Predict the 3D structure of the following.
Amino acid sequence: MSNNIRAFIIDIGASKIEYLFLHNEKCIKMNINTPTKMDFEEDMEQLSNSFNFGKKTTFVVIAFPGIIKNGVIVKWPNKPYWEGNNIIERFIQMFDTKSILIVEDCNAGAMASKYIFPDCSNSLFINVGTGIGSGIILNQNLYSGENGFAGEFGHIVVDYFSDDICSCGRTGCLQLVASGKGMASLYKKSTNDQTDNTKWMNHSIGKKILYKGAIYLGKSIANTVNLLDINNVHISGSVLKNDIYRKQALDTVMQEEKKFLSRKLSVVITSEMNSSLLGACIIAINKFSISATTKKNVLANFPRDGEMS
Amino acid sequence: MSNNIRAFIIDIGASKIEYLFLHNEKCIKMNINTPTKMDFEEDMEQLSNSFNFGKKTTFVVIAFPGIIKNGVIVKWPNKPYWEGNNIIERFIQMFDTKSILIVEDCNAGAMASKYIFPDCSNSLFINVGTGIGSGIILNQNLYSGENGFAGEFGHIVVDYFSDDICSCGRTGCLQLVASGKGMASLYKKSTNDQTDNTKWMNHSIGKKILYKGAIYLGKSIANTVNLLDINNVHISGSVLKNDIYRKQALDTVMQEEKKFLSRKLSVVITSEMNSSLLGACIIAINKFSISATTKKNVLANFPRDGEMS
């Protein structure tokens, strides 16, 4: 594939879609809102209009937050009305190419971690945004599990006797108490303030919810470190930009580790970067022949620094 | 190594030591109480007397429930006064042989699972006795983690805001609420009945503790199935012989699975068998040249049936 490409590298989130448009050695970063028309067909139509750049696409790599099997969305707790639909077929029509690769967004994030931290043989990548997901690198390889479903971190049960039902069907999931959406719901429930923005984070009740959520996240991470005996954790996602949450999550992991096995644990926060999109780029670079200039342009879109503990 | 061997295959538990003594094509199964003199030297002396069969040993394989690094016990929450001692050096003296192999007991249990269920590429082995441990098989191999500490299942935190301190140093560990010792302590605490036997299991308060403990265990297993996406779980250990506990643990895992991803999950209870001892045998057979007759005698000591769900 020469420099004459016309490709998309896309990260689909519950509320926002970030993507890179690759064209004639250039790489432009853009984003649109994820359609929320509560109807799969209408959502697809809106997406199709957003990506209608007029010509056949060379290839598309998509980081997707739901569970997909044979092209069909098996589970996407954030948009259950998308479930049961063949998303690959739709993207083939939408982009007029069969070169479509879909990867679970946190598996893509884990691939980004592997690229940024090549010395980590075993690592856990976690993203905390609207939902919570993870990707696991074991023995230098992405571990995807028996059925390709590994790493559903948001649906780890943390409150064992809770009655609060999660969108996945379980009760007491981490996502209910520690994700952006989960914590905003808890705030709404305890204050009756129904405003949909992030101002709740500055409210005293909001701060308590963030603090507790971060402890839940931190202990869940410590549990996974304990189970898998890994020395490296990389945490990404918009919620980590909040000072209370970030500090408490980091402190909790390190305190738990110190109490028991005191490994040489490194926890790095990479909240300034879209790891899933970077991972999708790494996958695109490995899979498709992209020119050196385009590669450079693609990778230039990502900062590499993180906050360490 | 001909048929003229004189070897030990040993499973050291917190309260009981089960072992096979291999001699002249014969294999005898025996057990002794684990010494509890609260002093490492005295415990070693008692052990040494128990194993004093008069002659040099050919080889020893030991399944041990604590964490060992370079021969030194790093952690054994059930017997902290053994920590910091080089156990391999002691066994070399005790058995008068350098052919000593020590393996973490639940890793041995996982090796037994691999032997009994050779078709499982990925599986989780859990033992619930005095404590709770696990061993993980991923891609047909034992997964032991970055530092050899993988699978500390008993020290997964399940009660995130509990103040109850575990012997490992953390608070709210699974072992405190779902292990034999943990549940017996909870019973003693709520009834002031300080009797040390298993009669508490028949008491109405004891039954509630067992029921709740089994839910904690079941949800912890479901969390691990969710994180690692494995289809096979094998549960061993004396506590599983209790009807309430066994049934509720099985039901909980299956209910949790049904709510979310509905994998083809198989959970097998192998409580009638000492999986760690069997695993140590498999390891001994793989490592040392044992005659066909002895092999047959060794393996004849283990039933292979389990209760499935």
